[in-house]
Amino acid sequence: MDESAVPNANGTVAGLLHNIISHELGRQPGSVRVLDFGCGAGEAVQTFLALGYDAYGCDIGADWPGAPGEWERGLPGKMWKENARARLIPITASPYRLPFPSGTFDVVVSNSVFEHAQNKQEAFAEIARVLKAGGLGIHFIPAKWRFIEPHIYVPLVSWMWPNVPDWWLSLWALLGVRNEFQQDMHWHDVSLNNRAYCREGLHYWRLHKYRSLFRKTFGDYVSFEDQRLRLGRGKIARLSSILHLGWIAGPIRAVFVEACIGHHNSRYE
Question: Distance of CA 232 to CAs 31, 39, 72, 264, Å?
Fold first, then answer.
């Protein structure tokens, strides 16, 4: 199925992932089971389902209500008309375990998840467990060297992490820098909020650490930057295609904006 026939698929992360999955596996969506790791409210899962995949999502579920009858009023319930519990399943935090049997999925994807995860080794070990032999992983990860931190919008935070000075956060709060959840907050509260977020909510790695962990866990490491630029529909992808600059645009984007990286589960073949 062409994602152009599906509402909201064009230009979305799920649409790009669909293009990469199709290119890598060479199979119809109906024969592919996909897990969105760190799925949030499940928007990408909905798009994958509309594209024909057998799609599921899992998350630590901080915004998901646990009590029966409250699910539909919580974050997933606001986006799902059908029963979200059939497709969105909370992760067990302790002991850490994804809520699926081993070898369940052909593909595991994530989008802006691993700059938060402090248990990366545990998480990728579980991804390896639930992936089939030869299964594919594709992950979008904001770069450590991105100038503006994409969650709190404060410059150079990811560069400085884990030692972000309090005065730096206070300066930008005084200058009026806010994310969408902080618009009505006093600058001092914004500073305290961002300080806690830097300590508890961020965990940036350089790309070489992901390469090392992927090779150790899965047996290989794959950069999908070329495919992102060839198969994507964003401005950078179109410009790179027109000017034939993919050879430099991909590596620069991976280092300074966002990496599109992945793996094949070759250790389990």
Answer: 23, 21, 34, 21
Domains of the chain: 3-143+205-268 (3.40.50.150), 157-200 (no CATH)
Q: Sheet with 54-59: list strands edge to edge.
A: 88-90, 54-59, 33-37, 105-111, 131-142, 258-264, 222-223
Q: Residue 132's closest CA among 100, 165, 159?
A: 100
Q: Where are the strands (E) in 154-232, listed by range? A: 222-223
Which of the four pLDDT bands, split at 50, 70 and 90, describes residue 184? very high
Residue 36 bridge partners (DSSP): 57, 109
Look at residues 26, 152, 155, 40 and name the one whose alpha carbon lies nearest to residue 14: 40
Instruction: Tell me what pLDDT residue 2 has.
Output: 42
Look up residue 114 and give its DSSP letter.
Answer: T
Helix (H, G, I), strand (E, B) or coil at 91: coil
The pLDDT of residue 149 is above 90: yes
Phi, psi at residue 5, to the nearest 5°?
Answer: -85, -5
State pTM to two decimals: 0.88
Q: How far apart are CA 121 and CA 60, in angstroms?
A: 16
**What are the Cα distances from residue 36, in Å, to 125, 188, 253?**
16, 36, 23
The crossing angle, in degrees rounded to 10, of helices 207-217 and 120-130 is 40
Q: What are the residues facing 261 on neighbouring strands?
A: 139, 223
- How many whole angstroms from its chain centre is CA 265? 18
